[in-house]
Write a structure and sequence with these properties.
This protein is an alpha/beta fold. It is built from eleven helices and 24 strands. Helix 9 packs across helix 10.
Amino acid sequence: MAKRTYIITAFQAKQNEKNAKLYGRDSTKGAPNMNLITGLEKLCEDNDGEIMYLSMNGMDASEYYEDYAHKFFRNNPHVYLPKNRNRKLNKNCIVSDDIVPPQNMDPATSRDRIVQKDQTRIFAHSKQRLKSIAAGNGRLPKLLITTGACTHPNYNETNHKGDLAKKEHKYGAVIVDVIDNISFNVRIIPAQRDGVFIDLGKIYDGGKEVGHANVEALILGDIHWGDHDPKTIRANDEMLSYFKPKRIFLHDFINGHSVSPWERDKMITRVKLFEEGKLSIEKELIAAYNELIRLSKNNPGTEINIVDSNHAFFFNGYLESGQYLKEPWNTRLALKIANGLIDGKSPIETGLKLMGSIPSNVKFLALRSDYIIQGWQLASHGHRGISGARGNVKSHEVAHGKSITGHTHAPEIMRDTIIVGTSTRLDLPYTDGSASRWMAANAVLYEGGLVQLIPIINGKWKG
């Protein structure tokens, strides 16, 4: 299969006469956002691609495509009804006939089990949802993705569900770059209400590309230096060079394998780790320090933020327990770091500073830090939830409103809550034999507030 690009969006049917009489006539309900549509068609033209318009009901099931689609979509050869969907883009990606009412709060509800046969599944919905779904033992996860809409909202705003659906209506599309019959790249394209959108830094306003967006921040998938994946690190470097962000955010930059509590009572595992040099705090800190210096030199005008993360707290537990007294190869350095902890300093910051001078463009964010850019909270790793509970996508939404976090290694979009993936290998010992949601993915925050989550598949992030 030759390379092919697909732009996939969805449209609601327009208001019918019955609902106009019941709730008041509104010609905007289900009307196409023509500025968005002409922009998507321009993007399609630029990529020599194919556009797909997926039909949805309007306010209720009485407003359906066959009788109530806007005239723009009537007899449009690029319109796909449910009966014409289930179209394979390649062996591993399908545009499906799933029907989820546009009023539903979370289009992913009860859909995990339907994402079968190791196929990423894209279906029509007025919200943009992305969720990684576990697949097999050690294989890449599948993705459940919904499109967003290219029409203006059409809901019954006199009830709770319709009122909320209008507030959460998302304009945009999904783009899929099919590389061959197996490989593809995919990303969601969010759009503003006026139809302006950004894809890979290119700004589209109607039928023209109007420039390149400034990038406020690039949030990388959890680093875990020492367990990192070289292909993903190269992809991260490519993105840094391509987007030239003002800021980088690093989650779980330190892996903590030298002080991990999970292997402390596993004698055979510790023998192997000792032989590999992975029980040495100094070796781990030197390796992380060298990577930090490399990032700083390669991105001299970019602010580098190290987000306080749960693996960094392995050091706190190690020092509090006095475990270093049983490990003479670590005792001297651990005592120096412990002195800093007594004074309230971060063990990671103290340890890295003991390895050498920290570049001026590197910042260490504290656990209680807020770092809000364009309304997005960027200083939360995601491991902490509300009132001491564990973090999850729903608690992030309640606590932060708009946030980009890490921690789960499973990329996800739910409304204005975005979780990046991982920069680690996907075959780590503690994932052996388990189906995994892990995937590499980074988030790009553009000036103006639009965000793209960009998955990385086998080191590739764009066609």
